[in-house]
Amino acid sequence: MSDRISPEARSRNMSRIRNANTGPEMIVRRLVHSMGHRYRLHRRDLPGCPDVVFPVMKKAIFVHGCFWHRHEGCKYAYTPKSRENFWITKLEGNRIRDKENLVKLEGLKWKTLVIWECETDDLDLLRKRIHVFLVQQ
């Protein structure tokens, strides 16, 4: 199946996709800050370069896009119809790498929380999840 838009339009669309400071990530950061917590961003010395890091507590939050990180059962985690083999390989590679990074962080005695893009819609529930994560030992 061929792409429905021109290569130039597709290139323009893809160039606008960011890997840091995304909308869902900014929602989480504002929420954490409003709860009185301070954090560091994108620590490259940690496996997976977590989005929000609490070094003293040894805790990290990853904010994953449902499409890019394959949120199981989510309507946003679809597989594009064009170049299906490319996308399956690419997206499954992301999922496997994410899992490996969580295991590495656990081996370094870090606690992690994964927040999915679709979970940023319910701010009350999100606030509770983050609070529980940050206050647990």
Question: Can you walk through the features of this model?
Answer:
- It is built from 5 helices and 4 strands.
- It has helices at residues 7-15, 23-34, 66-69, 84-107, 123-135; strands at residues 40-41, 52-54, 59-64, 111-116.
- A 4-stranded mixed sheet has the order 1-2-3-4, sandwiched between helices.
Strand order of the largest sheet: 1-2-3-4
Tally of DSSP helical segments: 5
- Structural class comes to alpha+beta
Q: What name does CATH use for the topology?
A: Endonuclease, Chain A
The percentage helix is: 40-55%
Summarize the structure.
This protein is α+β, with helices and mostly antiparallel strands.
Spell out the blueprint of helices and strands.
Elements: H1 7-15, H2 23-34, E1 40-41, E2 52-54, E3 59-64, H3 66-69, H4 84-107, E4 111-116, H5 123-135
Parallel strand pairs: 3-4
Antiparallel strand pairs: 1-2, 2-3
